[in-house]
Design goal:
CATH superfamily of the largest domain: Elongation factor Ts, dimerisation domain
Mean pLDDT: 86
Distance between the termini: 60 Å
Shape: flat
Strand order of the largest sheet: 1-2-5
CATH architecture of the largest domain: 2-Layer Sandwich
Number of helices: 8
Structural class: alpha+beta
CATH topology of the largest domain: Tetrahydropterin Synthase, Chain A
Number of strands: 5
Strand content: 15-25%
Low-confidence stretches: none
Length: 201
């Protein structure tokens, strides 16, 4: 299929990718616009994953209050340069992450922060429930593994489904932004308070 200038312009506008990348994506996708978009997004994600390792010491502490002051969130999101830290796209991302934390109440930023004792406890509960339901031993371990993974999806910010798009998790949302912004972006830490919650929870 012939790749027209109009197709290249349209894809560039949609993805922000370079001229040569856009032309190659359209050629590889036989002119299929959606396939070309997916190809460029995957390429951007791969580049973004490499960038994610770079040092990020600039950024913003985003604060958000929800429900008339019933829930408060403070999150530190870092990037590499002060220029990006002041950009609207970066600030919007930090705000979206604060909204996510307010709505979904994660307890950890990354999977490796979840204490092993907590995961073991979830596994014990799942094992006991499977036994109570009379599930065969062979199936029980799969159920236990599935329950522990589901628990991580609930309590780990990076694994949570994005509140505005269930098909995307927070890690992928950040990688998409890294691909567009061109700098490493890291959620350093967060704190979430809810009115009336017990101290020590």
């Amino acid at each position: 299929m012939e790749i027209t200038t109009e197709m290249i312009k349209e894809l560039r506008a949609a993805t922000g990718a370079g001229m040569l990348d856009v032309r190659k994506a359209l050629q590889d996708a036989d002119g299929d616009f959606q396939k070309a978009v997916d190809f460029l997004r995957e390429k951007g994600m791969a580049t973004a994953a490499k960038r994610a390792d770079r040092d990020a010491s600039n950024g913003i502490v985003e604060m958000y209050s929800h429900g008339g002051g019933r829930v408060g969130v403070m999150v530190e999101v870092n990037c590499e340069t002060d220029f990006v830290a002041r950009s609207e796209k970066f600030r919007n991302l930090a705000h979206e992450i604060a909204l996510q934390i307010a709505a979904s109440a994660p307890r950890y930023v990354r999977e490796n922060e979840v204490p092993q004792a907590e995961l073991d406890h979830e596994a014990e509960i799942a094992r006991a429930r499977a036994k109570e339901e009379g599930k065969p031993e062979a199936v029980t371990e799969k159920i236990v593994t599935g329950r522990v993974e589901k628990y991580k999806d609930e309590v780990v910010l990076m694994r949570q489904a994005y509140i505005r798009d269930e098909g995307l998790n927070i890690e992928k949302l950040i990688l998409q932004n890294i691909a567009v912004i061109g700098e490493s972006i890291i959620v350093r830490r967060f704190q979430r308070w809810e009115l009336g919650e017990k101290l020590g929870d």
